[in-house]
Fold:
Amino acid sequence: MALNLLKTLLKRNDLCKLLNHSRNTSEDGALLIRLLSSARNVHSSNIKKQVFNDPIRSQFFCAYRFYSVKTAEQQDINNYRTEHKITVIGQDIPSPFTDIDNSEFPDYIKKFLKSQGFEKPTVIQSQGWPVALSGQNFVGIAQTGTGKTLAYLLPAVVHIKEKEARRGLGPRALVLAPTRELARQIEQVAKNFRKLLNVKCACIYGGASRSAQANILEAGVDILIATPGRLNDFLVSKTTTLCRCTYVVLDEADRMLDMGFEPQIRQALEGVPLERQILMFSATWPKEVQHLAKDYLGEYVQVNVGSTELSANHNIEQHIHICEQQAKLDKFKSIMHSIAGDGFGKLLVFTNTKRFVDNLTLMLKRNGWPAVGIHGDRTQLQRDTIINRFKSGHTNILVATDVAARGLDVSGVTHVINYDFPNTSEDYIHRIGRTGRQQNKGVAHTMLTEDDARQAQSLIAVLKEANQEVPKELMDLARSFRLNKTKEHQYKKSYSYKSNYNQNWNPNKRFNKFRSNSMDRPNFRNDRYDRY
Structure:
């Protein structure tokens, strides 16, 4: 029972308070050392040396604080958070980093940022960096395109450089991403650390050579970027282990849960040490993500940039087009011609099916539009080639399914067209979020039919939150859907009542023989009157 209690405390930062309380009592301290040694397989002399004889380290036995954060004037902090719509929830929240030079980053990190031409942190970076460096568990809710990748990769490098790791194989920092495209996007950012800071990075995902990835893991890595399925494959085969991974990031956590990766995520988190630090980043805050955070993060600091409700980037101009299903292709051509007349840089077109990606790409090519298509049936080499052509500008039109809805950071995307409306409004926000990144302006066109009526009300809420014009046709579509749902509910209720009424009828009950022919027994004959 004592061991179970210690495991629970180790998952949370409450153990720090217990250690401070027990340090002054030699008998209780000796008992705690013995229990810790048996529960964690740690030598008792090391615990005594590192914890009880060092009052500074005892405060951060679980929460490793690599660099202290200067306390700014509280009024300045409040003004900054109010100006940038930052909401913080938790305890011992450090001040945001508003300037790189005055931050508490080590010199090699400042030098790295200057070499990359980095001048000023984004909002999620300014508040996320000091929280991550303080060693606390962290949940960050922010829109797409706000620099979340660097918000967790930079503290990961400090974590690796400043903290001694136990000997053995396996990564020291893990980043989980839902799709191959997002994992590769994170890898591109992490490669910069490999060159300048001597940090080994690797990216594993399905669809690529398993043996080549296994060789990289066996050679040893510091930062591992992975999709949940392929990571689970290597963990089950014992190709790698997470026994020394003390820094874990769940990027796009809501999308991973939507894709059914929760069992793989939980298996990975069960394999990391108890003194780990977990960071979760998401654009939305659904109940599934809240439950995952409650189960594995314990006490954490939550930072919301903007609202936790569904909200789109306000730099994107959203246009909604209501049309019939058979008129969608003509409407799409009309939108394309209007965009071409105004001029555009790069254009993303989203559809819901793989087959229509190929059909629409072929149609655009036949009409003189240089387009390429990407979906889940493409090989990894084909997907990389197509995305590189789109990024380099060799082709400026990309037709895709939702594999390109998240993690695709391509500069110069000025327009997004939703030929098919996605299954959820969250996916809609991520789709149009491919444009209007890094404070740039963008335009999004979305087509809806009567089949998409169930999404109309949530889309109206997104448009109103972004201060966009709501078309009258969209309001009518939402109203029509509500009326149809009301009628359907009333019909079901009436039908259920009638069914129950019929089921309660029993021919053996008294007075049932006097029921009229117009009731529920059309073939009933009243023998009493038939005699005459």
In short: The chain has 22 helices and 14 strands.
